[in-house]
Specification:
mainly alpha, 8 helices
Length: 196
């Protein structure tokens, strides 16, 4: 549907999604933002795997991002069973990892440090709230701060749960996540290449 199965390319795949009228405004906004910052980062490798993919704990994976190789790998078998919307959300999820994993793991600039600190604070609120659970609903966004951000930006159901459980004292908690996301991109696009 969106991917060239012979020569997959993350950027042309995203552009095809952006041209699809069925892409939601939120998906379009996040993908445009991810595309705008990707030009300041090393190219992300993109692979369609015909092998069954498993992640750390032997869980079946539709896709994953390797920080060590700066590569997104998508499971061909899983993609063949997905709706267009599920594929878009998977791609957003993995692009968020590709864009933010190194920032969250090793923030360098003041903007990155602020972003990582605020995301950690927000994540820890939900981690504490759901401390006896491994998931929120069917979602694993409380596994770590990286998964929290990727799930929040890619998964409307997870975002709805997070919105519903947001603390009142923080005002628009969800909007603060989105504002942090946009502010971080503004800072990233204002400087030269960031090595992963």
């Amino acid at each position: 549907q969106y991917m060239d199965l012979v020569n997959p390319n993350i950027y042309s795949t995203i552009n095809k999604i952006l041209k699809d009228p069925s892409t939601t405004p939120q998906q379009r906004d996040i993908l445009n933002t991810l595309l705008s910052v990707s030009q300041f980062m090393p190219d992300i490798d993109f692979e369609l795997s015909r092998q069954v993919l498993y992640v750390e704990d032997d869980t079946f994976a539709s896709g994953y991002y390797s920080l060590a190789h700066n590569k997104i790998v998508i499971n061909a078998a899983a993609v063949s069973l997905m709706t267009k919307d599920q594929f878009k959300n998977l791609l957003i999820h993995e692009m968020v990892h590709a864009t933010f994993s190194s920032v969250l793991e090793n923030p360098r600039t003041p903007a990155e440090k602020t972003f990582a600190s605020e995301m950690k604070r927000i994540f820890e609120y939900y981690q504490e709230k759901y401390r006896d659970q491994e998931t929120i609903g069917d979602f694993y966004g409380i596994k770590n701060v990286d998964e929290f951000l990727a799930e929040f930006l890619s998964n409307p159901q997870f975002r709805a749960i997070v919105r519903e459980q947001a603390p009142e004292v923080h005002g628009s908690f969800i909007q603060s996540i989105l504002n942090l996301f946009r502010k971080m991109f503004a800072k990233l696009t204002g400087r030269s290449n960031r090595q992963v």
